[in-house]
Amino acid sequence: KASTYQPGSLARFPEISHGVSKDHVVAPGYEADILIRWGDPVTADAPAFVPGKADPDAQEKQFGYNNDFLGFVPLNEAGTRGLLCVNHEFTSRSVMFPYDLRFNSPKELAETEMAAHGGTIIEIAQQSDGRWVTVQDSTYNRRITARSTAMDISGPAAGHPRMQTSADPAGTRVIGTLNNCAGGITPYNSYLMAEENFHFYFRGKLDDSDRLWRTAGDLEAACAAGDATHPEARNYCRYGVAMGGGYDWGRHVDRFDINKEPNEANRFGWVVEVDPLDPTSTPVKRTALGRFKHEGAESITNRDGRLVIYMGDDQRFDYLYRFVTDGTVNETDRAANFGLLDTGVLSVAKFSEDGTVTWMPLVHGTGPLTAENGFDSQADVMIETRRAADLLGATPMDRPEDVEPNPKTGKVYVALTNNSKRGPAQRDAVHDRAPNYWGLIVEMTPPDGDHAADSFSWDILVKGGDPSVPVTGAQFAEGTSANGWFACPDNLAVDPSGRLWVTTDQGGGWAQISGSADGVWCVGTEGEDRGISAMFYRVPAGAEMCGPCFTPTGDTLFVAVQHPGTDGALAFDEHARASDFEDPMTRWPDFNEATPPRPSVVAIRKEGGGPIG
Ligand code: FEO
Ligand code: CA
Ligand code: CA
Ligand code: CA
Question: Region labeled Disordered — which residues (predicted)?
Answer without folding.
Answer: 583-613
